[in-house]
Known about the structure:
The complex is a heterodimer.
Chain A lengths: L1 E6 L7 H12 L2 E5 L8 H4 L2 E16 L9 H5 L5 E2 L2 E2 L9 H5 L5 E16 L2 E8 L6 H19 L3 E5 L6 H7 L4 E6 L3 H16 L4 E6 L5 H14 L2 E6 L3 H9 L3 H4 L4 H19 L2
Parallel strand pairs in A: 1-8, 1-9, 2-7, 2-8, 9-10, 10-11
Antiparallel strand pairs in A: 3-6, 4-5, 6-7
Helix pairs in contact in A: 1-11, 5-6
Chain B lengths: L1 E5 L7 H12 L5 E5 L7 H5 L2 E15 L9 H5 L5 E4 L2 E4 L9 H5 L5 E16 L2 E8 L7 H8 L7 E5 L6 H7 L4 E6 L3 H16 L4 E8 L5 H9 L3 E6 L2 H8 L4 H4 L3 H24 L1
Parallel strand pairs in B: 1-8, 1-9, 2-7, 2-8, 9-10, 10-11
Antiparallel strand pairs in B: 3-6, 4-5, 6-7
Amino acid sequence: MREVVVLSGKGGTGKTSIVGSFAVLAKGAVLTDCDVDAADLHLLLKPAIRQEHEFWGGQVAVIDESKCTKCGLCQDLCRFGAIREFKVDRTSCEGCGLCFHVCPENTIIMKDNLAGHWFISDTRYGPLVHARLGTAQENSGKLVAMVRQNAKAIAQEYGFDYIISDGPPGIGCPVISSLSGSNLALLVTEPTLPGMHDLDRILGVCRHFGIPASVCINKYDLNEENTRQIEDFCQRQGIEVISKLPFDNAVTEALVQGLPVVEYCKDGIARDIEMLWQRVSAVLAGACK
Amino acid sequence: MIISVASGKGGTGKTLVATSLALSLKDRYRVQLLDCDVEEPDDHIFLRPVITHKEVVSIPVPRVDETRCTYCGRCAEVCAYHAIAVLPKNVLVFPQLCHGCGACSYLCPERAILEEAREIGVVETGHSNGLHFAQGRLIVGEAMPTPVIRRVKEKASAEGIVVIDVSPGTSCPVVQAVRGSDCCLLVTEPTPFGLSDLVLAVDMVRELKIPCAVIINRAGRADGRVEEYCQKENIPVLLSIPLDMEIARLYSRGVPLVEGMPHWRESFLRLFDHVLEIINERSRGLKR
Lengths: 289, 288
């Protein structure tokens, strides 16, 4: 069983459109959406939810105002600025519990926090494990870990060859959680200066955690000079550019229809994405030897 | 006055909007741009600022003085992040898990825990042609952006206009960046992904009780669902930026929209007038 995660650093480079097509092409993969605070893969894969689970992540402090003597110790000690005028701001509280331990009147309790939900679903292409982080919640990294653990269990139990994960943007906690232990990170970039800047940083994260990476340049014809620079950069870094996808309106049209690109059309960009998947599965086969 | 620019979905044009809004206003007001997307800060590419000051962002992590430690285990018991493990004759600290809350050192009965700074990022301040600028940068491989964002926001000027560029998503780094804004501009695109993530972003700003307005980028082949949603939710759509290869190419070269196509300046100034109306209406509402 091999696991590929699609990442980009910069958002909006085409991760989900590519993963949606991979789902069709892999013919037998467990899919995950690791972008738990802005998940979109379900809009293409139209899952039927089979299991729904609560995700309890971290705790939040709650002050019993009737017993509080307003001594202010909790406010003074809280390093997250989460207690103001003897009230806890739920969105600032990081659940450390220092206030709970120090309150001389024992008026603070730590409440378990329902931070989101995660789901196991069926799609036309295979099982999908996905999640929804609650509004303004933290612990997205833990929720991603939960999603991936379950995807792995399903893949092992039913003998799937691949796990294909749609990753979140950025380089922080949910990205690290999506990446750790994967066989390959496919980095989707675009030939814009922000795209290039962010590619450098996400590549650094892959290096830091020792995950092999390959690059796909999406909309390469938007700026061919920048595309050449990305190719040079990747060559210097010893990273293979395994695909260059042209700008094609069909990608947006497919999205508006709610279809993976390779189901919306058969030629042009669909052919290119098919070749990309062949390359990815070949690299994965090599990475797992 | 603080105006934040957020989106839910990544790559919808937050950076384009934040930089063009700040540049459009800078001749009329004192304007400061804070790039709070500390995982992938890109505003500097468009503004090419002169950086005049850098400061390290660190979080305090425990260091155990084993000459005083009695291995009682209190620190491990109180640590909500499992960043300390106490063995019979040894204490293990996992700095990557530590949030720097200080519970272990404060509650250690032997006062055996000191704190030392662990570097996780940097905040840079400077200016670009009369525009005040600050950005945070998380060190590659670090997981926690929020302390860096907190420090960038400490640079916010009390006077004039502060524009905050926010990372994508709706979770803790976004909340940290958006909190305290007078108005939040949500940039979206007219696709099912754009709409789905806009709905999440609207939930987030409402939870924070911040008034919001929408900007639609890459408008053109729209099915009108974003507008329908905004109308239903009574959220004003203040600006539409068309899907245009020339705009995309300017962006690819790191040229701000209002510099490459100066007629857009008027649109951003009008946008700002609408934002002022939203903020004024809100404060009248609160006084009532």
